[in-house]
Design a protein that fits this description.
Number of helices: 3
Structural class: mainly beta
Radius of gyration: 21 Å
Strand order of the largest sheet: 3-36-35-34-29
Largest sheet: 5 strands, mixed
Helix content: under 10%
Number of strands: 36
Shape: globular
Length: 545
């Protein structure tokens, strides 16, 4: 979803982005929607009609690489191991929100979780079923969209402004995990089978939960995506809002394949009693060797300015290995870690850790935030990126950019919006490839050195009546396709684009719908190379003609 933080009174409606209902910047300030400070007319609060999907022929059985969860892998690199198909046609669609809740101005401030895809090309989709929550999980045939199985969960969303993402997870062993109420998990051993039973491990113990389920169901919330290591151990953050018999407080949990669990409180892990919980929507990331878990924690309610730490935890014991207070590289004061975003740690091939934050004071960086980088023990290294708000960069091999002549072995691809009317934002919303090891003067705050821009490309669609502004890029993580030297990204104009890094051009596109202001969404690639994108509460399956 695109969005952008803004205050309620200073900007006229023509300058307030469709994301204007975003994260609360202070007790009296609210943010915007998918469009940062865009000035285009708002869409009507009715889902726009989509192109009629082209019927698919009887599919050939597929065996291919899985897409395990948010950002594909435990490092969230978001790189496809196979070439994606051409953006030729919409093969099928499926609702991921049965009752989308639009604001009066027509924006959709709901985060949607990433589907997963099995090696046999079953795509598993989280579906929001009610106005304020309620979720089911569907297994569908990736080639045809036909429903193979479905299960209703009892998951309850944590306290929020924007509706948080509900994510599922596939492990390397083929197990499917989904969050349930009271901190429980739903587990299915075979995501491909038409029938199957679910088990329900509980990280704080089944005996404690079963003795008093009501004490937990309305007060213990899994508030981050799930992440798995190579052995099938599961990691996630949870929020606790009231006292309970088990003595749970908000923290980070680990569940082993046999269902046994452990946890540590966020305050204990941070060594700071003012820390309240893991940042909502922050997917834990794992080091390349699987021994360290990275997750962000914050203080402050969802309606206030939130600040905090990035933690490195032992993946077996959850003991703290390192921590770093997250600061704004311009003001050198605490950066904001908003629950209205979905930024998550990303681990590079050399073990560096990247994490996006909002600037300390709105709108000193045009509500773009910053992408901070650290070594494996969270010592600050290198330069910040000039955009970090609600984004998890995709890691791409430097060879994907033939024009690149630097020494870095990998680069970062991400959105690079510059919200119209927010600070000095000009509305020239771009995608960017950045070099994490070399620098240039920041285009907004020239006194700060930031990651060098290797390539950028401007959004193609004018943004309403604004003179130069372009519609925003609406992704929180986008697919990198090394074999085709391209990335795949949604735009707020309702179109999915292929950005060819060899020619620095938008070489393919397909219209999904008429477009609207919405929260940032993920893109992914199926086991057969089909491309999946979410727009306006709908999942689109795109295949070659």
């Amino acid at each position: 979803m695109s969005r952008d933080p803004h205050r309620p009174d200073p900007l006229s409606p023509s300058l307030v982005s469709r994301r204007t209902a975003l994260a609360m910047l202070s007790s009296s300030a609210v943010l915007a929607a998918c469009s940062g400070g865009g000035g285009s007319p708002t869409p009507t609060p009715t889902p726009a009609p989509s192109p009629t999907p082209t019927p698919s022929p009887t599919p050939t059985p597929v065996i291919g690489p899985a897409w395990f969860g948010y950002g594909r892998d435990a490092q969230h690199m978001a790189a496809s191991p196979i070439a994606s198909q051409d953006l030729g046609r919409i093969s099928w669609t499926a609702a991921v929100d049965l009752v989308p809740q639009y604001t009066p101005s027509g924006t959709l401030l709901t985060h949607y979780g990433s589907p997963v895809v099995t090696t046999r090309n079953t795509i598993v989709i989280p579906v929001k079923t009610g106005a304020s929550g309620g979720y089911r999980v569907e297994g569908r045939n990736g080639a045809t969209g036909a429903v193979i199985w479905s299960v209703t969960t009892f998951y309850v969303t944590p306290p929020h402004n924007w509706v948080p993402a509900y994510n599922v997870l596939l492990t390397a062993q083929g197990r499917l995990y989904a969050p349930d109420s009271g901190g429980r998990l739903l587990v299915r051993d075979d995501a491909d089978a038409a029938s199957g039973t679910f088990t329900s491990p509980i990280f704080f113990g089944a005996a404690a939960y079963n003795a008093n389920p009501t004490a937990y169901d309305g007060t213990v919330f899994i508030n981050t995506p799930l992440t798995a290591d190579a052995n099938g151990n599961i990691f996630f953050g949870f929020q606790v809002t009231a006292a309970n018999p088990a003595g749970l407080v908000s923290g980070i949990a680990r569940v082993a394949p046999d269902g046994t669990g452990s946890w540590i409180s966020a305050a204990t892990a941070a060594g700071d009693s003012t820390v309240q919980k893991p940042v909502t929507n922050c997917a834990p990331a794992l080091s390349l060797d699987g021994t360290t878990v990275y997750i962000a924690v914050n203080r402050g309610s969802t309606n206030a300015t939130q600040t905090g730490f990035l933690l490195a935890l032992d993946s077996t014991t959850l003991a703290t290995r390192a921590k770093v207070a997250l600061t704004d590289p311009n003001s050198l004061t605490p950066a904001r870690l908003s629950d209205d975003g979905t930024a998550s740690p990303v681990v590079g091939p050399d073990g560096r850790v990247f994490y996006g934050v909002l600037e300390a004071q709105f709108p000193t960086h045009n509500a773009r935030g910053w992408l901070l980088q650290f070594d494996a023990l969270l010592n600050p290294v290198g330069f910040p990126g000039s955009f970090g708000w609600d984004v998890s960069p995709s890691i791409i091999p430097a060879s994907m950019v033939p024009s690149y002549a630097g020494s870095s072995t990998y680069l970062l691809a991400q959105k690079y919006n510059n919200y119209n009317g927010v600070g000095t934002g000009d509305g020239l919303n771009r995608l960017a490839v950045l070099d994490p090891r070399t620098s240039q003067a920041d285009p907004i705050v020239a006194s700060v050195q930031v990651m060098r821009e290797v390539l950028t490309i401007l959004g193609p669609t004018p943004d309403g009546n604004a003179t130069m502004a372009r519609r925003e890029w609406c992704i929180n993580t986008m697919v990198a396709d090394p074999l085709r030297r391209s990335v795949l990204a949604n735009n707020e104009d309702g179109v999915l684009y292929r950005w060819d890094l060899s020619t620095n051009s938008l070489s393919q596109n397909i219209r999904l719908n008429a477009g609207l202001g919405q929260a940032y969404t993920p893109t992914l690639v199926g086991a057969d190379g089909a491309v999946y994108a979410i727009s306006n509460g709908t999942l689109y399956s795109i295949r070659a003609s």
